[in-house]
Amino acid sequence: MNFKNYGDYTAQALASGFSIARVIETSHQQYMIMTEAGPYRAQVAGRMANLALDAEDFPTVGDWVQVRMPENQADMATIERLNARTSVFLRKAAGRRSEPQLVAANVDWLLLCMALDANFNLRRLERYLAVATASGAQAAIVLTKADRATDLAAQLASVAEISGAAQVLVCDATKPSGLSELQTFMQPQLTYAFLGSSGVGKSTLINHLMGTASLATQTVRASDSHGRHTTTARQLLVLPSGSIVIDTPGMRELGLLAADVDATFEDIQALAQHCRFSDCTHQHEPGCAVQAAVAQGALSADRLASYQRLKQERAQNVEMRGKARENAKIDRMFGSKKQMKAFRQSVKARRR
Ligand SMILES: Nc1nc2c(ncn2[C@@H]2O[C@H](COP(=O)(O)OP(=O)(O)OP(=O)(O)O)[C@@H](O)[C@H]2O)c(=O)[nH]1
Ligand SMILES: [Zn+2]
Fold first, then answer.
1. d(Cα 11, Cα 19) in Å, to the nearest integer?
2. Are strands 167-170 and 100-105 parallel, antiparallel or unpaired?
């Protein structure tokens, strides 16, 4: 990893006596970071935690941070500053909670993984593309388990219809040469995050890419002075090729929060230019060019339904998040909504 290439940040860090590090693992506000002097456990400085308003204000895997190094490698480093991110990938936490979960930062390429077996699902791929478009990272599609493809040619054709500019790579982890397209694609020094639902074969791909450099040699268990290691959701690894990868296991549901649905459905956007009403919802309006395309068979009804579903889900989650933020602000100022009401009552009473 290149710790020198951070221009202003490196200068700023050095001026403050801090070191530049990259977050390689997070778990319950505990961090594992990689520094020029090797891996360290780290925690966020109290001052920084106090200023943090959102989940986004805390470091996540892939973040470049400025740290105060401990005297002793067994002790924790302190994360003092978070460097600006080139990309950040968010998802809505599982369930009804609208809190965003930071998945990874400073990712150059999101590798959207989809298995070619019975779990192949174009609508899910559209969802991943929408999230990727809003992340700031570039996206490529990795089709896994080619040995189990139901109909490879037809599947590739249907992916090509929705993939836009994203490159499509096909992998088969059961064959020695089955990862060559992916290996040719990946460049040293760049950061790749594998994204996909549970079981698509992300860990299998990463293990193959790691080759003999086993996961154990990469993780920093040795530096955990307590001798235990809580398994975490995300991990940043450096491959023998020099590429940097972030695994994101266990993603059962990718809730839309930051997502650019319109950019992902450029075909529908282009058609919508010809709708009679500029605010057409493409549902029942007269003169709707999108519905006309469906009627003519130029646009699949499934794809239109997928677009509308994703638009609606995103709007709902953004609204929920707005409310959650407001509540968080109230909690910070008053402790709780109840205390805020009590405070307002007391102000009123005093006025009388
Ligand atoms: N047939 C076949 N099976 C594969 C291939 N790649 C992975 N598998 C199998 O698919 C299953 C899931 O693979 P994992 O690599 O654990 O999937 P994952 O995406 O990391 O899953 P999570 O860790 O739950 O996110 C395992 O049983 C693998 O052996 C492949 O190319 N072909
Ligand atoms: Zn319309």
1. 10
2. unpaired
Compute how many other C-beta atoms are within 10 angstroms of the C-beta atom of residue 98.
19
CA 251 to ligand 1: nearest atom? 25
pLDDT digits (tens, 9 = 90+) for 136-180: 889 999 999 999 999 999 999 999 989 988 999 999 999 989 999
Phi and psi torsions of 339, nearest 5°: -65, -30
**pLDDT in the model for residue 310:** 86
Helix boundaries (H) for 74-170: 122-135, 152-162
Ligand 1 centre distance from Cα of residue 135 (Å): 25
**Dist CA 3 CA 234 (whole Å):** 21
Distance CA 346, CA 340 (A): 10
pTM over 0.95: no
Pocket lining for ligand 1, CB < 6 angstroms: 144-145, 147-148, 172-174, 196, 198-204, 249-250
Q: Which of 186, 193, 171 lies closest to 254 in space, CA to CA?
A: 193
Structural domains in the chain, CATH included, are 7-82 (2.40.50.140), 88-247 (3.40.50.300), 261-334 (1.10.40.50)
pLDDT computed for residue 151 by the predictor: 95
| Alpha carbon of 135 to ligand 2 centroid (Å) | 28
Helix, strand or coil for residue 245?
strand
Length of the chain: 352
Q: What is the identity of the amino acid at 137?
A: A
Query: What share of the chain has pLDDT > 90, as a percent?
Result: 39
One-letter amino acid of 253: E
Q: What is the dihedral of CA 62, 136, 16, 44, to 10 degrees?
A: -50
**pLDDT, position 132:** 84
